[in-house]
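Help! Submission page says 'invalid entity' but I think these are all valid:
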Amino acid sequence: MRRWLMRLMFGLAATCTLTPMPSMGQTAATPPYTPPRTPDGHPDLQGIWQVLNTAAWDIEDHGASLGVPAGHGVVEGGAIPYQPAALAKKKQNFEQRATLDPESKCYLPGVPRITYMPYPFQIIQQADKVSIAFEYVRAIRYIYMNGNPHPPGPIDWWMGDSRGRWEGNTLVVDVIHFHDRNWLDRAGNFYSDAAHVVERYTPTSPNHLLYEVTIEDPKVFTRPWKMSMPLYRRQERNSELLEYQCPAYLLEQEWDKPGTTFFDKR
Amino acid sequence: MGHRILAVATTLTVALWIVILTPGPAAGQAFWAKDTPKLPMAKTWLAQKAKLPPYSPPRTPDGVPDLQGVWGGAGGDGTSYLEDHEFVDVTTPAQESFVSDPPDGKVPYTPWALARRNEILAGLGRGWPGESGERLYSSPSAFCLNFMPRAGGFEGQEIVQKPGSVIMLSGIGYRVIPTDGRPHISQNVKTWFGNSRGHWEGDTLVIETTSLNGKGWFDSTGHFYSENTRFIERLRLVDANTIDYELTVEDPTIYTRPWKMNFPKRRAGTAQRGPAPLRNAIAIPNAPATKDPYASELWEVACYEGNIEGPADIRDLGFKWFKGVTPPK
């Protein structure tokens, strides 16, 4: 009995000595997280997720203004590498954002914008596709993983055409076939119909995904650039997607107060 | 010959104008010939169902019936007109009622609600017999809005089952139905799809939906429910490729009794392609698969975004916004 106890204590002591303890401010040594698997054997990213940042208002660093919380940007390197003409258009977009922002018209917000809007979304995995259901306008993205390549274009879609693959524990989604009216936030940042978006969803803990997006667009930017942010699993036991039927609210307002929406300004 | 072509062209032009000017289902709009045999719905389905041998559905690893797969919708003329009717116009051919109970196929409105329903019918502004001449309400579907039960129950969808939930995916949206026993959200919350909770009763998936905002219609002719309405859907496999879809509607504020609709949902690829009247009526197992690799994919619809001139046009025609009915206390 005593020998058994001694052995256990010695074993515990050895484990403590040999296991590297994370020191203050040390994150690089964190062992990679191994996510649970779906019955298909892929990393299980399913559940309800949401960002906890201000990228919906502005993906670059920004101060506060009425109705806009201040925030650090999510763009790596700080600034988006616009071409000069595109930067001028971005500034114009910002000035006229109240009328030009597609979100103000309740349009489908495009990818990646819909991911970091202040509404939850749910990831649903099947063998042939990963589906993302959004509370915002009940939008749904089908990310096909059935072996089909992007269909031949040109196709003008609000949400683009998404094709996925697994790289280790990361879901990599290749998105093309956009139209030229999508914005990236409420500050007028934008891309064009030539945009090529690559998203990476990497589980970093049971309750966090790292969301990374690379955007390439030779019509708008001088080089590919990247944004990244964590996605948080909603912890509320009763969490479920509810409803934000933006077009319905806008239509009802137009009938209640004629002339107050863009419908009148055809 | 020339006259015939002209006649056809004129008919098409008129039909096109009806579609442009008439609030109705814009997506998937079909034109129906006057001599189209009556489309089958509840009555035909109940007769077919009565002759089916007992069926024991396969089970998921969780031990519940496996309803997974891609399923068609109600078919017919696209929920143009809920009750039994003869040919009205090219959008609305003769069709049996969706209503299986009461047996007369009529929605059992209270007298107040029936008067309101008749008022809406007379104000559709579609050039139909018996109209008042006033344009009252346009179908909410004309604005590309999606709501129960048209978008969530009557349309086709893929059913996915996960531990604790049943998920329905379609080209125009989704439903996530918890089956983990959680309570409904507050009845003060009112939404277009309502708040759905599912459970299993034997081989049947039972889905109760509350918190409806009562602004949606059952069809394009203004058959309505209210914000007090409760939907109970029952989905049961009656053979390998057919779900019996039953929707019970309860609302003592506008109906004299609970009432039911029934139709079959056929597994994708098994419903008969062929003469329109027979579509969805007969299941053909092992129908040849298409060679298009993208055929099974759901692609972006963006109905609202593509119809942005519609709302102002509809309003300019004088139609009001349907805010739901308020029955007298």
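Support: the input was valid. A stray whitespace character was the problem, and the output above is from the cleaned input. DSSP finds four helices and nine strands in chain A.
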